[in-house]
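Exercise 7. Given the encoded structure of a 286-residue chain, write a plausible sequence.
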């Protein structure tokens, strides 16, 4: 039997290599359970850490509370997702730049490796006009990657609206650090593998999920949609990539904690299984 991994096949008995990348559980993946519950679940299932989605949950906004949870469960905070979603526009005030700075400071306080932010909305004209330069300046000032996430056009029936500026696609933008979200790529009608290859060294962070190409941002368990999740993870292994892969899936329809944990365990198993690549000669590497 030959197991496919990305564009290559791994013959039986051939050695594989697993990169230093770590798999985190996004606190958003346990919603409607709390941020504190995410730490407990991550510890029980064997995740390497958590990504904290700064949300209306007061604990998600409090570095001291997060540090206590991290110490109690032995689970590090690996990344911070800034409150730049439509539903978190009022978290930490209305002004976007202070929110990004506060997110970066929280990441430093918790020894997290990156901050994730969505691009501005079109109606945030002044913010959008200086966004690319501002993100670069913040990254340099704080010494921590501010990663910009790929988004998607908003669709209603046959109409399409460009809701983000300077755009939903980070590939043509000058961002030094990018987060690749599989579900968003699916909603945009794109190919995560092609995007990963185009981004190359700029691919700093990953949100692992899946989608069926719906106009709705689905955040399915990886492997249940049509995105090449396994192939992208295999590519990262070939690259000896060392960033964080944050599982960001929607488990709201789960009827019990047991059902939710089963889905999150499946996500972790998927990541561990596919985050491996054939051992290559130096000349065959990235």
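Solution.
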């Amino acid at each position: 039997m030959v197991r496919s991994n990305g564009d290559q096949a791994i013959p039986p008995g051939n050695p594989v290599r697993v990169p230093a990348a770590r798999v985190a559980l996004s606190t958003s993946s346990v919603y409607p359970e709390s941020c504190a519950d995410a730490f407990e679940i991550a510890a029980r299932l064997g995740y390497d850490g958590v990504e904290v989605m700064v949300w209306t949950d007061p604990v998600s906004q409090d570095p001291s509370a997060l540090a206590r949870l991290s110490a109690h469960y032995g689970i590090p905070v690996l990344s911070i997702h800034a409150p730049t979603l439509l539903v978190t526009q009022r978290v930490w005030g209305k002004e976007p730049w202070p929110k990004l700075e506060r997110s970066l400071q929280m990441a430093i306080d918790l020894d997290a490796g990156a901050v994730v932010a969505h691009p501005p909305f079109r109606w945030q004209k002044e913010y959008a006009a200086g966004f690319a330069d501002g993100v670069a300046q913040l990254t340099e000032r704080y010494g921590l990657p501010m990663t910009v996430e790929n988004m998607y056009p908003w669709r209603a029936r046959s109409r399409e609206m460009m809701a983000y500026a300077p755009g939903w696609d980070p590939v043509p933008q000058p961002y030094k650090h990018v987060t690749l979200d599989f579900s968003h790529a699916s909603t945009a009608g794109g190919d995560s593998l092609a995007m990963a290859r185009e981004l190359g060294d700029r691919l700093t962070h990953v949100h692992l999920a899946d989608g069926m190409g719906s106009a709705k941002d689905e955040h399915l368990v990886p492997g249940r949609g049509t995105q090449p999740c396994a192939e992208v993870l295999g590519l990262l292994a070939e690259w000896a990539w060392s960033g964080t892969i944050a599982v960001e899936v929607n488990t709201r329809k789960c009827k019990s904690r047991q059902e939710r944990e089963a889905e999150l365990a499946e996500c972790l198993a998927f990541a561990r299984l596919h985050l491996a690549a054939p051992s290559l000669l130096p000349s065959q590497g990235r």
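Remark. DSSP finds nine helices and 14 strands in the chain. Students should compare their own answers with the one above.
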